[in-house]
What we know:
By secondary structure, the protein is mainly α. It is built from 32 helices and two strands.
Amino acid sequence: xxxxxxxxxxxxxxxAHDAGAQVNKQYFVWVGRDMVMDNRYREAIETLNILxxxxxDAYEGYFWRGIAKYNLDDLxxxxxxxxLTLAKNPVYTNAYQFRALxxxxxxxxxxxxxxxxxxxELRPDYxxxxxxxxxxxxxxxxxxxxxxxxxMYMRFNRRNADAYANRGVAYLNLQDTVSARDDFDRAIxxxxxxxxxxxxRGSLHMAQHRYDDALADFDAAVRCDTSCIPAYFxxxxxHYRKHDLRQTLADFDRVLALDPASAVxxxxxxxxxxxxxxxxxxxEDYDRAAAYSPENVLVYYNRAGLRLRLxxxxxxxxxxxxxxxxxxxxxxAYLGRASVRYLLRxxxxxxxxxxxxxxxxxxxxxxxxNDGEPSFxxxxxxxxxxxxxxxxxxxxxxxxxxxxxxxxxxxxxTLRSDAHPGEHAILHPGQDEAAEFIAATGDRWIVFxxxxxxxxxxxxxxxxxxxxxAIAAHGGRWQDHFIRGITRSLLKQYTAAIGALSSAIxxxxxxxxxxxxxxxxxxxxxxxxxxxxxxxxxISLEGDPSTTKRDEARTYDYHEAISDLNKAxxxxxxxxxxxxxxxxxxxxxxxxxxxxxxxxxxxxxxPHLAEAYFNxxxxxxxxxKNRAGLLDISKAGELGIGEAxxxxxxxxxxxxx
Length: 657
């Protein structure tokens, strides 16, 4: 189905507030709502969090926070907030409607239908649920039901161009091209500056081989919106059908100027450039298509053919290998590889590939007689046809970006010039103890948190020299050894730092923060040594065990750092940072269930520890518990970690379960 099916979200203002509500609570609701209306979604979440902490029963707060999350693509978090809204106010129609929209985007069409039914039962005279349910039926392939719902919506509103366009698409899927064309015409008459009506009608013209009419519609869509990527793409296809390759390439160039990561456009432009004899630039386009869509078999198959034509036999062989690896029943790829192996004088390999191709072709023909399903084994098909705008090739390389997600850093001590009492301290039930510890050091530069030091090297050296002088003068103060441990760690003198912190522990063996500090330095030393071997400690969200293994010649572990946190936990079991830090080390060691348990302990002690939610979410994603993991990352975003929404966007709806 084309991607032009629009979903208009009717943001209906909340009804009058409870007369007994406090003025400040009303203020936060209105400010949060205005921020949502102004597309300031993260600020809205922060504002509404303040309201909900003061009044957990403020259902409007949950509702508008859900809207903000929805617009940040945080679908698990949005659904949870709409559910909380309905728990506080079971007759709140808008919450049913928006939870239905959220469930629809997540692929839960049945759950969406239940919510739409509730919304319509509560307010049968309210048009928005009919529209939204019609679009959901359209997405679910229930075209007759989509028409019925959009008919009902139009009883209330006949001036919505998108409604006509959606109903036209439904009619088109019902093979009623006359009604579809009539609705596309109505969409254009309703709003002549709205490109979608022209796009849909132009696509219908393309299907009817009326290419001049299609070009006229796509030209109109571009005039309405010069940044409309689908208009340029479809216009390129229309030019191609009219054999105007120069204009075809020009429109593909415009698409890529607007969306430099469009794999399907690189693929199509490569085909056209090959047709014009521009082989080198066609090869560049295939390279880009492969970078953005590394799992698409056609990219490698077509690039192999082009490399074979250019005489790049080894490159062609590699591409055929990759195509066969992705689709082992691809008979055409075996035949192509047989040709390359023959040219490379590998007669036996060529014979094996031809034999494999013949077997797969025979199996394909038998299968075709049984069920008529198409297959890449069909050697009579052509794989050099331009692909449509909504082909799966347009999927971005989300997997590659996911692997860049990193755990939030552990908490530790550092030195900062902008230190203020309590400002950088971890916010948890042990905050008072942390503040007391920092006060006991007598050094106003010390902070406890996740950030690094902002002091220049000269300033750190000066602090280190002062601590060394104090030790020489006084000898027995744990505070001076502690400060020297921090300065030495900042100077990457890890052995000396651990020695200094060990001296501090000998002088004050019952203080859990000293063990936390030494653990952090030990872990940092492990990471530093690891990085020298180009083995950076991280978790890959793709669950590839090879990404978490160390070089077999040398192994690195966090045993000593974890041991210090075990001691700290016995001395200060109420400190969430201990379990959070230990969870990080366990995760980096590959002990994911144990890491999950420690993050859960940290969250139990401090339900607002955003970093623990984020890291627990990553660990669950690694363990393929996607829904639970995304809910945790959603919570981290709600609590202020903006990176959470970047991670959520990497997971399309079909991968969220």
